[in-house]
Design brief:
Blueprint: H1 6-16, H2 26-31, E1 50-54, H3 58-69, E2 73-77, E3 89-90, E4 100-101, H4 112-120, E5 125-127, E6 134-139, E7 142-146, H5 148-153, E8 167-169, H6 175-184, E9 188-189, E10 194-200, E11 203-208, E12 213-216, E13 218-221, H7 225-228, E14 232-234, H8 239-248, E15 251-252, E16 254-261, E17 271-277, E18 281-284, E19 295-302, H9 303-310, H10 314-325, E20 336-343, E21 354-355, H11 359-369, E22 376-378, H12 390-406
Helix pairs in contact: 3-6, 3-12, 8-11
Bound molecules: flavin-adenine dinucleotide (FAD).
Flavin-adenine dinucleotide binds next to helix 3 and helix 12.
């Protein structure tokens, strides 16, 4: 679209497709601003810039979406063969069209940006937790059954909202990054790991693994800290960022182990396949609201427990969890079809589940992590106050998008 800005193009498209009322007041409508509104819409007219975004997770996608809408020329470079980053719905390894979340899954009611974009893209929401059946609590190998209402009134952890208030995106969390990506399609380059970023008074130059160089006015880097040191920056980043990306800003471990079953045998006992254990772990049945008979159970492990599981071979991981779960779902060994796991520490492009700094690390480094350095801006859940949430990725992405939008096109 050489002669139109994206904003003008969208406006004209809306007129053609009847998105705006044309019937009786065509002249008036033509003078109005486009009817585009999104939770993070960028306001004001600023010079258009060439922006290169590194990473197509929620931070990069939300920033890229809004910058594009505001008339900037955006290119997103992503190392993986898919968008979404730590939003990753596993779909291929299960039968009957079942799926399960390796990363982001539940959304609390105050995460206005996450919910706002789900609404913006018309993605329906469902309750996250089952609305019937017994939940299980396993402590010291003794199983207690918890009635539905008692569980729903409780909380996954003390400072969180109640179980009953969490929702999920119907059909899988990856539908949210996919919705952004459908709009940005021709601007995203997958399997394009960035290897170096150089800036000088003429611009910023991004080199990827096949040697191609991209030139821009600004770069937005959304790469998680544990894998940020795979990019060579010239000049070097600040000492605080170097510290944070060299292990000075802790990340949590998390691993999810999935098991598929030919039948939801736990239902024979009135169980819904959900609960907790004192290992500690969360037990989820991602298929609870989908047609049977097959079902998936998931063990959600964090911190030391995730590290313990990561140290085992794939078959030993499955056996380890099955052995413990004989006390949760008696007879489980007789029903399991297969298992698989996803470790975020072992994940090549994450190196950890989410930023989990000590109080001291947070106090010293938090302010520096999201701070722009010349033409390079920084975002991602680690650069927000919502560590471990899509909300943090989006809020930081929009903060950086605003910085870029409002910046002068050339540094002086
Ligand atoms: C186990 C787990 C459970 C979670 N549960 C929830 C939940 O229930 N609800 C919720 O809201 N959030 C949850 N989250 C958090 C949420 O998934 C993340 O906060 C959010 O997705 C992070 O987005 P991001 O854009 O900051 O980072 P990422 O999603 O990690 O995106 C960064 C992108 O950069 C790419 N990249 C890295 N290096 C390079 C490079 N050199 N060149 C090019 N690209 C590169 C990566 O491949 C990745 O796609 C969970 C996360 C995990 C791991």
């Amino acid at each position: 679209m050489p002669d139109l800005t994206r904003r003008e193009f969208l406006f004209k498209t809306m007129l053609i497709t009847g998105g705006l009322a044309l019937a009786s007041c065509e002249d008036e409508v033509q003078d109005e601003e486009p009817d585009y509104e999104s939770p993070g819409m960028l306001l004001g007219d600023y010079p258009p810039k060439n922006v290169i975004i590194v990473g197509a997770g929620m931070a990069g996608l939300s920033a890229g979406y809004e910058l594009t809408h505001a008339g900037h020329n955006v290119t997103i470079l992503e190392a993986r063969s898919r968008v979404g980053g730590r939003v990753h719905t596993h779909r291929n390894e299960f039968s009957d069209g079942h799926f399960a979340e390796a990363g982001a899954a539940r959304i609390p009611p105050d995460h206005d940006m996450t919910l706002g974009y789900a609404d913006h893209f018309n993605l329906p929401l469902d309750p996250f937790y089952p609305q019937s059946g017994f939940f299980v609590y396993l402590s010291e190998n003794t199983r207690t059954l918890i009635p539905t209402n008692d569980f729903l009134e409780g909380r996954p952890w003390p400072t969180s909202v109640q179980h009953k208030d969490y929702v999920k995106i119907r059909g899988g969390t990856d539908l949210l990054p996919t919705a952004f990506a459908e709009y940005l399609a021709d601007q995203i380059q997958l399997m394009t790991p960035v290897e170096s970023i150089t800036q000088n008074s003429g611009g910023v130059f991004v080199r990827v693994s096949d040697g191609t160089e991209f030139t821009g006015d600004r770069v937005l880097c959304t790469v998680p800290l544990p894998v940020l040191n795979r990019i060579q920056f010239s000049p070097q980043l600040s000492s605080e960022k170097l510290d944070a990306m060299s292990g000075g800003y802790n990340y949590a471990s998390s691993t999810r182990l999935f098991m598929q079953f030919a039948e939801r045998f736990w239902e024979n006992e009135g169980l819904n396949g959900w609960g907790y254990s004192d290992w500690p772990e969360e037990i989820w049945q991602p298929t609870w609201d989908r047609e049977g008979p097959r079902g998936i159970l998931m063990s959600y492990l964090r911190y030391d427990r995730a590290d313990e599981l990561d140290a085992l071979s794939a078959s030993n991981q499955l056996e380890h969890v099955l052995n413990r779960w004989e006390n949760v779902f008696p007879g489980i060994h007789d029903h399991v079809e297969h298992g698989s796991s996803h470790s975020w520490v072992k994940d090549e492009w994450s190196g950890g589940a989410w930023a989990s700094p000590t109080e001291e690390q947070y106090e010293v480094l938090e302010h520096h992590i999201g701070e722009a350095e010349g033409r390079i801006h920084f975002a991602g859940e680690h650069a927000s106050d919502y560590h471990g949430w899509m909300q943090g990725a989006i809020v930081s992405g929009l903060r950086a998008a605003t910085e870029i939008h409002e910046s002068a096109s050339l540094l002086t």
